[in-house]
Amino acid sequence: RGAARIAENNTKQSKTGNLRCSSVVREVERMKEERERRRQLQAEQRQEKSALMSRDPGNPNWEVAMMVRQYRDTLAFKPLRSLSPRGARVQQITVCVRKRPMSRSELTNRNVDVISVPSPDSLVVHELRNKVDLTKFLEHHKFRFDYTFDEQCSNKLVYDHTARPLIRTMFEGGNATCFAYGQTGSGKTHTMGGEFLGKVQDCSTGIYAMAAKDVFIEMAKPEYRKMNTEITCSFFEIYGTKVYDLLHPDKPMLRVLEDGNQQVVVVGLTEMAVTKVDDVLELIELGNKERTSGKTSANAKSSRSHAVFQIGLYKGDSIHGKCSFVDLAGNERGADTKTANRQTRIEGAEINKSLLALKECIRALSRGSGHLPFRGSKLTQVLRDSFVGGKRNKTCMIAMIAPGLTSVEHTLNTLRYADRVKELIAKDEETV
Ligand code: ADP
Ligand code: MG
């Protein structure tokens, strides 16, 4: 039977011989064309690569730069550039992200900017990944927040959308709190304390100072002028579980006590009465200097502590409302555990603990009731007033991110933390 089939096939083939011949020719031509097309494509890619490399010779990251650029070509950019005439939204909890520009050293090291901020409330992180066959590709992580600030946004624009809407809270008898969160070097101190001109910080350009200015503008309004009010400032640092007064020349360590009514008191904290913006600027400068003048490497030390700047509004002898601005310790500690020494590891654990407690406390604030885990860390303990009192209190978190390829892991951690703060709120609101 097998032989019969072969014979049959042979007859078929001979019948279709001419047909087959021309289809083979066609097939060969198609392959030739295909090969030609591939060659052309490769030539174009080589040309693009050499153009890129000649513009930027020896850049080891040219491929990532090219892929990011190709992705950006598909986006329509309409980033935040000005405050809307209606002003910023006032919400109980606002979560924003600020991307800083590439630093000079990042540019010299051919680091690639892998963050795109296409609109006022969205952001994309381009993460470099390898396929199983080791070819590179980008994974695009998309995030949404209340506001996203790109590298061109000024401190003023950030302030207008974050802390400024909270100033009224203090006059209405509430507590407003603004946090700067992110890895070391992402721009927390730049945003809160002011721009650096070399090593010198111009504190008039920071959120602390801009807030103080608006507090005095509000104070000058007729309804407050008549009252017996006073503005005070305090500035302290939380290093591990210890609290240090930054406005006292000896930078003493202070005790934190809780009275029978769960009121938390930082015993002996300097509260300076101020009557004008210049008074406040002087105090900020003093505190900033005190903060970074540690015996060990100043920046390393300040990155491991939380700095809290507070403006208090007193009516007579009792506190009416408060604004707190917190420059948090760098959040990169978790990853340090392999290399760090014992002391640094203990500090890192404390920082992680305080940042987790902070997230839980903001979540409790959004619920407006229930268990408030403020004793979870020194930070949340001293800020207890920020998390109780329900709708009267307002909180804003600015998550700072560095733009570079080499920071992607920390950047994603920061964004996921910020995302969870917001996500939890959305979920909680649904159940209210
Ligand atoms: P962090 O306090 O988070 O450790 P810094 O505020 O000290 O970070 O910023 C690190 C560096 O980046 C500083 O040299 C600062 O001047 C610079 N920088 C941060 N944010 C910006 C920005 N938005 N524009 C320009 N430079 C910035
Ligand atoms: Mg800092």
UniProtKB/TrEMBL annotation:
The keyword ATP-binding applies. Residues 30-49 have a biased composition (Basic and acidic residues). Its main location: cytoplasm. Keywords: ATP-binding, Chromosome partition, Coiled coil, Cytoplasm, Cytoskeleton, Microtubule, Motor protein, Nucleotide-binding. GO terms for cellular component: kinetochore microtubule; spindle pole. It is found in: Cytoplasm, Cytoskeleton, Spindle pole. Coiled coil: none annotated. Residues 30-59 are annotated as: Disordered. Residues 92-424 form the Kinesin motor domain. GO terms for biological process: chromosome segregation; microtubule depolymerization; regulation of motile cilium assembly; sperm axoneme assembly. GO terms for molecular function: ATP binding; microtubule binding; microtubule motor activity. ATP binds at G182, Q183, T184, G185, S186, G187, K188, T189. The keyword Coiled coil applies. Belongs to the TRAFAC class myosin-kinesin ATPase superfamily. Kinesin family. KIN-13 subfamily. This is Uncharacterized protein, isoform A. It comes from Drosophila willistoni. The chain holds residues 144 to 575 of 745 of the full protein.
